[in-house]
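Hello, quick one for you while I still have it in my head. My current little project is about how a certain protein chain folds up. You're getting the sequence in one-letter code plus the fold written as tokens. Would you mind checking whether the tokens look sensible for this chain? Here's the protein in full, and shout if anything looks odd to you:
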Amino acid sequence: MHSEADPPGWTRRAIPQAGVSIAHNPGWPAHEAGNVSYQTFGRENGAVSVHWGDEASMEWYLSHTGLGSGGHRRIIEEDRPAEMGGLAARRVRLRVISTARGHGVDERGRPVGIAPGDPETILVAVGFTVNGAPLRVGYRLPASERAEFEALLEHVLRGVRPL
């Protein structure tokens, strides 16, 4: 199955337990765990995912995502109504900044001695209901890979469709 919405070289993958289909990159590792199906990409632990069940609600997402330990700061950059495959949805964009990676600050208060790994992550989630059950699709994108992957990931999200 191929949809015009899919990026070139990708296939369409149905996830019956979630009630949707999504573009699937055959070159990215695919994983299933509980009520989540996801693919990983890039050098810094990026992922595109589909969640279903109780923990797929946007309320659960906002009360758990990006809060982590005391070494993170979460900024809600966007929280607005949206549409997903013809269904009413809610779109949230978070920026999570690690504040624990530095080994001190300079005279201007900027972190110094940043540890390896991206100190900033962009998280986008779109929540909606399919067959009466909550569903959330989205991605985790290290800021250092934004130029390389963000437009592609937005394209994939726009292509999610109910079965």
Q: What stands out?
A: Strands lie at 11-15, 20-24, 30-33, 36-41, 46-52, 72-84, 87-98, 120-130, 133-142, 161-162.
